[in-house]
Amino acid sequence: xxxxxxxxxxxxxxxxxxxxxxxxxxxxxxxxxxxxxxxxxxxxxxxxxxxxxxxxxxxxxxxxxxxxxxxxxxxxxxxxxxxxxxxxxxxxxxxxxxxxxxxxxxxxxxxxxxxxxxxxxxxxxxxxxxxxxxxxxxxxxxxxxxxxxxxxxxxxxxxxxxxxxxxxxxxxxxxxxxxxxxxxxxxxxxxxxxxxxxxxxxxxxxxxxxxxxxxxxxxxxxxxxxxxxxxxxxxxxxxxxxxxxxxxxxxxxx
Length: 254
Ligand code: G
Ligand code: G
Ligand code: MN
Ligand code: NA
Hints:
Layout lengths: L1 H11 L3 E10 L5 E12 L3 E3 L1 H10 L3 H21 L6 E5 L2 H4 L4 H11 L7 E6 H6 L1 H14 L2 E7 L6 H4 L6 E4 L1 H6 L4 H16 L3 E4 L5 H9 L4 E2 L10 H11 L1
Parallel strand pairs: 2-4, 4-5, 5-6, 6-7, 7-8, 8-9
Antiparallel strand pairs: 1-2, 1-9, 2-3
The protein binds guanosine-5'-monophosphate (2 copies), manganese (II) ion (MN) and sodium ion (NA).
C-alpha cells in the first residue's frame, strides 16, 4: 500500500524519468534506435528499479497512468530531438500486458501521436514473447490495428517464453529481440549459439529484423555479425543514458 501511494505521488511530482539505450546497426555501426527505460528516483529511498515497481503498478492498475506518461514523454522527446536536428532514431517503449489488453489502447496511442504530431514510424512497441503467445487471438487483432496505424512492433526477451514459431509467423511483427541470456551464453555453449542462429534464420525468412540484447563484449559482437544479426544493444555500446547524455553521444559521433 505504501509503494502504491508512492507511485501515485511519483507521477504527480515528476519523480519518473526515462533513460535511453542505443541500438546499433551491426553493419554500419550507426545508432538507429533507442529503448526507453523507466527510472524512478524516490526522494527518500533513491533509485528504485522498474523490476521492483512495475509488477506492483501492474497489480494496482497504476501501470495505465505510468504507461501513458511514458508514451507522452517519448513523443515529446522525439519532437525535441527532431527540432535539435539529431539524426532520426526510432524510440521503443515497453508495454505491459495490462496496458496491452486495454480495449482503447490503439485509439489512445493514435490520439497521443496526433497530439504530438509524430510520425507513427518513430514509435516502436516492445511486447514480451509470453504476452504475445498467451492471448493469441486478441493480441493478434490488437497488433494488426497497431500495425495499421504505422507503428513498429517488436517481440522482447525472445527465446525465454513459449517460442512457438507457428504463432510467430502469424504476428505482424517487425523486430525480434533475442534475450540477453542467449547472447551471453552463446560464446561458451554451442546450444545457445544454435538458438541464436535459428532465431536469426527464422526471423529473416519471415522478413523480420533481429536485435541482440545484452551485448557486452567484442567477441559477442563478432559472432553476431558473422551470424547475420541486424542490430545490437548492450553495455558494449552504451548503458541506458539520460536524454542529455544521449544527445552528447550522438553529437560526438557526427
Ligand atoms: O532497465 P532495467 O533493466 O532496470 O529494466 C527492468 C525491467 O523493467 C525490464 O524488463 C524492462 O522491460 C522493464 N521496464 C523498463 N521500463 C519500462 C516501462 O516504461 N514500462 C514497462 N512496462 N516496463 C518497463
Ligand atoms: O526486459 P528488457 O529487455 O526490456 O530489459 C532491458 C534491461 O536490460 C534494461 O533494464 C537494461 O538496463 C538491461 N541491459 C541493457 N544492456 C545490458 C547489458 O549489456 N547487460 C546486462 N546485463 N543488462 C543490460
Ligand atoms: Mn525491452
Ligand atoms: Na529483454
